[in-house]
TrEMBL record:
GO terms for cellular component: plasma membrane. This is Maleylpyruvate isomerase family mycothiol-dependent enzyme. InterPro entries: DinB/YfiT-like, Maleyloyr_isom, MDMPI_C-term_domain, MDMPI_metal-binding. Residues 11-140 form the Mycothiol-dependent maleylpyruvate isomerase metal-binding domain. Residues 153-257 form the MDMPI C-terminal domain. It comes from Streptomyces calvus. GO terms for molecular function: metal ion binding. NCBIfam families: maleylpyruvate isomerase family mycothiol-dependent enzyme (TIGR03083).
Length: 266
């Protein structure tokens, strides 16, 4: 599956960091629980995102050949505990600008360690784009803000990447819950109802004995999830329920729930 252009990912990282900043600038309660990540407050979510940005910036800038402990990443801890929103916003903006600069300088083919088997800066540009898209939704939910709409090309690519991650976890961590997603004869269909036809924002996911297989396109399946592309993406990432307004589940709802409970990073 073709990825988006490297500069497109860099542009989107910058945009998503700005959207995060807007949440912080709105006066949102930093102590509010993030409903989709209930172990975190909004402040902890922001710190998690900033730490990840700083870590990836160091990996890419130094062309790291192996993992680098976060404790060795300058500035990863962010402002002092219980810092105000202005300080957190400034730190997050600096973190985002630094990683975008490193990614643009490196280009997509530069060799960089990753956990995925794709040892390029391009992997990190794509991963951080979708990390930010999903965590911005978390921040918006914690602050009581509208979720907004994810650009169609980014949303569709995020679905692709999530399916590739599930495949990767099935191969490398067979004892994890993703290993249970081997149900020959069962399948899921995702159907974005608002995307440009040229984008082909539909997916068929088959739960084979050897692990999941998938392709873009329309087909019949055991269960289908239909609705606007952003909503389909966020439901697939368990940020909103599959029966949220605008979404429709057709067929075996239990199979969809089974998938959502087990599809994970590991």
């Amino acid at each position: 599956m073709t990825h988006l252009p490297h500069d497109r990912y860099c542009d989107e990282i910058d945009r998503q960091v700005q959207r995060f900043g807007a949440v912080l600038a709105s006066g949102a309660d930093l102590s509010a629980t993030v409903p989709t990540c209930p172990d975190w407050t909004l402040e902890q979510l922001v710190r998690h995102v900033g730490e990840a940005l700083r870590w990836v910036e160091l990996l890419v800038r130094t062309r790291a050949g192996e993992d680098v402990p976060v404790a060795q990443v300058p500035g990863a801890s962010g402002p002092e505990a219980r810092a105000d929103a202005t300080a957190l916003q400034a730190w997050l903006a600096q973190s985002g600008a630094a990683v975008v600069a490193a990614l643009r300088e490196a280009g997509p083919a530069a060799p960089v360690w990753s956990w995925s088997g794709d040892f390029t800066a391009g992997f990190w540009a794509r991963r951080m784009t979708h990390e930010l898209v999903v965590h911005h939704a978390d921040a918006a939910l914690a602050a009581g803000h509208p979720l907004g709409t994810v650009a169609a090309d980014v949303a569709a690519d995020a679905v692709d990447e999530w399916l590739q991650i599930v495949q990767f976890v099935q191969r490398t961590l067979p004892d994890r819950p993703t290993g249970e997603l081997r149900l020959p004869g069962r399948s899921l269909h995702l159907h974005a109802t608002d995307a440009d036809p040229g984008l082909e924002a539909e997916w068929l996911i088959q739960l084979t004995e050897d692990g999941i297989s998938w392709r873009r396109g329309h087909d019949r399946a055991t269960v289908a999830l239909r609705g606007p592309l952003t909503s389909v993406l966020l439901a697939f990432y368990r940020r909103i329920p599959p029966d949220a307004p605008g979404l429709e589940v057709l067929g075996d709802r239990e199979l969809l729930d089974f998938w959502l409970e087990r599809a994970s990073f590991g």
